Amino acid sequence: MVAPIAWESMQDAGLLRRPRFTPLLGRWMGRPSWRRDEATCQRQSLWTRGFLTAMSCRAGHKATGIHRCRVCEESFPFRNSLFRHLRVQHPTLHLNHVCSQCKISPIPGTCFLGTKASVLCSRCYMHLGRNKQDDFEPCDVPKHMCRDIKPTELDRPPLNPPFSGCPLQMPKTLAFPSALLDAFNQYASMERPVLRVPSKTLLRDVPLHDLESAFASGMLCATPIGCKSTFTHAEHEQWLELAKEDPDRDVALAPRHPILTSDLLQTVLRYNTLRPSLSLKDIRRVAKSVWGHESSVSEWQACAEKTRGLRIKRCRGSDGHHSPTIETPQEEGVAKPFDHECFAFRFLAKVNNQEFYSTNSLAESIFHYALHPDDGQVPVDMCYELVRLARQSGNVVGGHPPASSSDGAMRVQLWKDSFDGNSPGDTPVAIFDRKTKGFWSRNEVKNEILREKLHGPFRMQVVWNGDVLPTRGVRNAAACCEEYGGCFARKLCEQHERSSCNQRDDCEYVHRKLVRRGGTSTLSNGLNRQNCKVTEEQLCDLGISQSSHCDLFWMSMLEGEPRIPLDEVLRRWSERCSKSKTELVQQLQEEIQLGSVNVLVLAYRSCLASHWKQKAMADLEGAMHVPGVSIWLSAALVEPPLQLLDCLDQFFRREQLSMRLSRLSAACRSCFGLDISSHGWLRLAKAAGYRTFRPPSRGRRDWLLRQQGESRKTRWTPHGDCTRRKEDLAEFVGDSVEQWPSLGVLLESARTFGPASLQPGLNERSRLAALYSILREVADLSDLGKDDEISESQDETSACEEESEVELADLELKQNGDDSGCSSEEFEGERCQIFPPPSHAVQMSKWPLPSTPLQVLKSTFAQLDHTTLRGVPVVKGKRVLKLTKPYADLRKTLLKLKNMDDEGAVEPDVARQFLQAAGYEKSLIRDWLGHDGRPVNFDLLAAMLAAAWRRATRPHAACGTCGEQSLGVQEILAGLLLAKAFSSDGQGRSHKLRRRIAGLLWRHPPLRGRLLLTSRGGSIGMGLDTTKSDHDLFLFIQDGDPSMVQELYEVLLDLQQDEKTHLRLKRAKILCKDFAVEIQGYYRSKDFDLVPFTDIQSSDTSGECQWDPVREVWQRILHKDLAPKLQDLSLQHPDGYLMTRVMKSWNESLPKIRRRKHPFISVHLPLMVLGAGDHGCFEECNSPQTYVLASLKFIGENWLRSELDPDDVTWQDVNAKPHLQRMTQKYLESVTQKELERLLQTKTRLFEEACSLRGDDRMSADGVMSLMREFFGCDLCLLRPDRKAALAKRL
């Protein structure tokens, strides 16, 4: 190995030269400038020797695996052998190359070797031109040359290709002074580029005449800087003259409008030192701010694609638009902004109460005039971040009104002197967090907020140092504030707010002095009669206490073993009592039959495991003496003990599994017969002090639990040869995996009775994850479901999936029932889990217990007041609209009510409780329910509850003339329509099945890397879905063409032929349409429409577009433009938006007169409602029934209209004309005009009759109910049409 060359020897050998340019601020840093360049050259040399590239023929390496030396053409089978050959035969081949033209030694980065023994550096190679007389090949330093160099000593690698040294190029027609341009290129070519250079610094190398002429002719962008204050905007024409006379102020200059080149792009990337990547929007913003560059984002993207060595990542921003980013090389150990707090406030204290021209002016002043630390110069972009933090903390505020072409004058005003401490030496501490105010009110801490300061979008609270705990962040803030008069604002520590912070005093955030509430957790420590199902009477027969018996299981649980072998249970139990072994077995037999103890039967053959699985419940003693059978026991729980997570954590550590909620739930159901919901796990984690978060990896939305500061490796990778284990496991499985009771029983039996290679060793444990991975290869378990954590398969795309997309999934699954008729791959059964299912005698317990409908109703009405819906739209969202909280609570309440009874009617006593919880008077309830004891129709109860909800939220919109002590029939009608708007059962399991389809498409070769986004669309995306709505899935395909629908169709047909595709897609019918591909009958007769679209930028149209095969043009997708219009409608006319949902349900109840389809196309109804709003039909509407009636009349007059009027503003904005023409053409082809018009007139007369009824008794309400059932085509139950048969028997 070649020893590293010492720095002194390189200097003596003449390998280091005095730099040609004097770096900026050398005199201000207090040291000679050439030393900085020595350090730079040293780091470049170290990087040169540490650059990793194998000296082999890459093509030969990929094809044959042979590594060949380029000098002597000798071949080697391994790369290490090549490196050994290089060290021995060619020890100095790649060190200290000298460029044949510029004579620079050593060459940093990549050198180019020629056939005529000539060597060129990257800069000379790029300037060589196309007509090269010699053939050059790039040659890099191999890895073995840097073995003695520490990784921390290596500087960050430069961009590839290396920097040319001329990033700033001006148009030749501009006649920009060459000396001035060379000076700007000098500072832009530095390791950390300086883009704005002070005029006094430029005058060292540039003639005064060139600088003045360029400034006068507008070739330069100027920013005033100074160490006291800056020049004003009124003096901008004399800034250069004033700078020559004023020693404390100057002007920072940069060339205006340089040519967009790859070198300019690389300069901006090297200018960034804070973020690992820069978006093209940020790059354009920096270029426009510094040089006034007017290039668009697309032009910057085209330049980046032409530049070698840049990695462009394409993702979606927060606004849903395409936002490419470029990764930037980062230095190791880059300082954080808070590490330079004293550096910033040392300068701010000197310029306190002074005004600066703009934010850029203040940041550049800090960089050029502040005293930099001795360990290195603070980067320019770090100074900008420091100014932002100073503004955020209120130390820099706005001064006089902003001038044109500036950010607004900034005034430095440190705020320490404006506060008086509670005690001598008490220092104010600023806390910045948008959630701070919510934290205070939630924890009932009212007297600690002394002052709230608002500075534009920034909000902070100021508390005294004595009101917070002395963390590292608080100590640094107090020290800086005490010395310089100000400090940055800190955030509250979220871990401390939840439970406890593992950093404690070393935390960089703020810890408030919180008084932890005692007694909030009702969970007990250990196992006892409260959480364990073991009965007390039978325990007393054994002469032992409840706690001692539960301690037998509890001690094993604390050790990480949730189950205990039967022999171990009897041994420990016999030591505590004087009973015989037979009596103990009988007692356990009774406990097992009562479901108090969970039993797991393991065997060395599948026939034994299946036989004794049920027989052990009745003959436990007989199972004990069967050879090859093992009985394992665990306690059945009613609710979790407080330390349950600690027990499972020990078990998961042994198995090396991550604590995901899905896996925790499976293990808890398997071992303890306890089903804990996601909310329960999060509640348990908060009580036990665990950290909860959602990992950012692709396609995973499950919560993950970890202890504070813990990192755990969970992915299994085989070490060594697994052939023996595969053979042993295949022999142990037998003929088929299906013969075993479950997959969990097979895995546990394999590591208990299997060969030695499958059993645990002395110092290692046979992991379930390892056995599962081997079993998948041996037995081909692809159809039994995949374990997402073990196989690391990504079954879905990272679609913009909102947290509330399955907000009522459990509730809707209960409503829709379980799909027991077919296998479900998304929800793998217990047979496909690595944990065995519990015994059948154990009845599954749920924790926490689900809320009753009455509890949900009380909670909903307790949060309501007359200001709840003021300024709150019905739906919100950018791409996918979802219900806001008040309306979502009402929908949840109505769905709970629908699921409380199977016969569609409610008992009078139960109805009375609901109406009292809604706020009705007892006399009114008595008048409406009567005394005959008849069951109350669910329609009437839901209408009365919805009417009470309207009264509480919209007292000004009450219907009818009845007062508070009575209930009018029109209020009943309004409540009935409101309940009908939320009566759809939702999509249920379809939300999760959608992710399954997206995962198959994302992995398919033609779409891999091109499917950038999947999201909901259509009725579901606009919040107008009903129970029968199709599920639309929008697919954003990169570089899509007019044939992308056909391409998607062929991909789905190919997936149907794949053996690994799940059964749902194989049995579905695939149809190709004009704009989408339809999957018919995918789930419960639901159709899934896959709609591909792409991004088009042209003169005719731009944005997210789809191809219209009829007109043969690109058109914008209607959903993107229609969703914002519907959101505006929900804000201006909330009842109008809700009644659009009612109109869709009404359309589904009409006869199928359009080729076995409903009369109106789904998207036509919201367009009609928006058109009615534009024509002023909603101006006098004040109730749901008036909105429905106005919409019906507008539809009856305009359902065949496709031409746009001047009043159709919304239709023109969304370009609805081609869509209207397509829909009217379908109507004319498939619907009889007279038949549909007759149907519309009949339904409109029915609704007008219902709106004309008056009264305040139950008889009048029955008349309205009867008309509404006829309007919606129902016989008995309007909101529960599926239960009309049971209701007819009861009523």
UniProtKB/TrEMBL annotation:
Residues 67-90 form the C2H2-type domain. Keywords: Metal-binding, Zinc, Zinc-finger. The keyword Zinc-finger applies. This is C2H2-type domain-containing protein. It comes from Durusdinium trenchii. The lineage of its organism: Eukaryota, Sar, Alveolata, Dinophyceae, Suessiales.
